[in-house]
């Protein structure tokens, strides 16, 4: 067997040492496309599972924010804002919280979390049917 015959691409069949015959059968192309379709299906299922996981995490965070006692929430916010800030990035946030209060931040985070949940519901197929 010649060297050229050993390294023949898949869609080709060896007829002789000098001639290659391309495999144009339907079975070959169906097999190639079936493999890619299976890969795409697995990838889509993985993406949906990841969206479901992220949705679950967001739902847990919203529940935590809703059920956290006001004193505990104030402590959490103060601890976060008390961290060292070399570039004074949090200065505007500290000023705003002094004016509007820490409860405003909680309402804002819950509202943004609910908006994100609705986006997840739109992306996850079948999520609309489960709610009804």
What does this structure look like?
The protein is 72% helix and 5% strand. The longest helix has 42 residues, at 26-67. The chain has one domain (3-131). It is mainly alpha-helical and 132 residues long. It starts with a helix and ends with a helix. The radius of gyration is 29 Å and the shape is elongated. The chain contains six helices and two strands. Helix 2 packs antiparallel against helix 5. Strands 1-2 form a two-stranded antiparallel sheet.
Short characterization:
By secondary structure, the protein is mostly helical. Helices cover 72% and strands 5% of the residues. A hairpin with a 5-residue loop joins β1 and β2.
Order of helices and strands: HEEHHHHH
Query: Count of DSSP E strands?
Result: 2
| Total DSSP helices | 6
Strand proportion, as a percent range, falls in under 5%
* Straight-line distance between termini: 67 Å
In spatial order, strands of the major sheet run 1-2
Gross geometry: elongated
| Gyration radius, rounded | 29 Å
Uncertain stretches of 5 or more adjacent residues:
none
Question: What do the pLDDT scores average to?
Answer: 81
Approximately how much helix is present in the residues? over 70%
The SS-based structural class is: mainly alpha
The largest sheet is: 2 strands, antiparallel
Q: How many structural domains can be distinguished in the coordinates?
A: 1
């Amino acid at each position: 067997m010649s060297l050229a015959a050993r390294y023949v691409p898949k869609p080709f069949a060896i007829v002789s040492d000098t001639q290659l015959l391309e495999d144009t059968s339907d079975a070959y192309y169906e097999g190639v496309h079936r493999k890619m379709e299976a890969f795409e299906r697995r990838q889509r299922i993985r993406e949906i599972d990841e969206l479901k996981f992220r949705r679950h995490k967001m739902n847990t965070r919203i529940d935590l924010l809703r059920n956290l006692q006001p004193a505990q929430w104030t402590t959490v916010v103060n601890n976060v804002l008390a961290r060292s800030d070399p570039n004074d990035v949090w200065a505007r946030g500290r000023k705003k919280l002094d004016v509007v209060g820490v409860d405003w931040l909680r309402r804002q985070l819950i509202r943004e979390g609910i908006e994100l949940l609705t986006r997840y519901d739109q992306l996850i197929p079948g999520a609309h049917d489960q709610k009804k």
